[in-house]
Fold:
Amino acid sequence: MNKLSQAFDFRHACKVFDETKKIAPNDLDAILDAGRKSPSSFGMEPWHFVVISDADIKQKLSSACYNQPQIMSCSHLVIVLYRKAVQFTMQSEYLRQTVRRNLPTEGVSFELDAACQYFINYCTNGLPEGVSIDNWAEMQCYIPSANMMTAAAYYGIDSCAIGGFEHNKVMAILEAIKPQFSINNFDVALCLPFGYRKNPQSPQIRWKKEEVVTFL
Ligand SMILES: Cc1cc2nc3c(=O)[nH]c(=O)nc-3n(C[C@H](O)[C@H](O)[C@H](O)COP(=O)(O)O)c2cc1C
Structure:
């Protein structure tokens, strides 16, 4: 079996981590790079990864995540934030800087305005009915999240996607530490604790291939 399929078999939703084991900096870097290099709609990378290893911060976050044991026991907690709609307006510095990178002639403001407007038109007319820019940004965060969990498994590191958290509480904790993480600008897509399993892996329960795949 190749190392990638081994990683898919190794990954499971780890419920409690071994608190004595910490992830080495180069492994953590490789995991974060798997997130950073993920694809995104229009190349907008509508995410930001906050990495936490400090026990006091984890303690505060734990209660905002319904005291799930992964938060305190993990080696590193990555909070995957999505960038909210306010960061994707014509005036937004984030939008302008992100679009500017992809322009052939840097600094031509007409082209920059037109390219930003093209993206905003997509958001206004191109998104399915009922899907907001916030939804668009949040759903993309699942791509780097999945890539980070698979990359971790590749290096023998465990993880668990945590969707059970209180958005406002997590954001209030982050904003109190760094005001740039205001709920006006960001919200939480997922919490991703990483570390080393304490207990044996749970069985992987999945539908059979023919039940989830259709060839036409
Ligand atoms: C978006 C999302 C949110 C999840 N939230 C939680 C959670 O809050 N707590 C938890 O223990 N597991 C959580 N999980 C893990 C799933 O329960 C788990 O992946 C699923 O039951 C399949 O098990 P496996 O990953 O071990 O194969 C979440 C998974 C996803 C994808």
Observations:
- The first helix runs from residue 3 to 10.
- The two ends are 28 Å apart (CA to CA).
- The CA atoms of residues 59 and 183 lie 20 Å apart.
- The first strand starts at residue 47 and ends at 52.
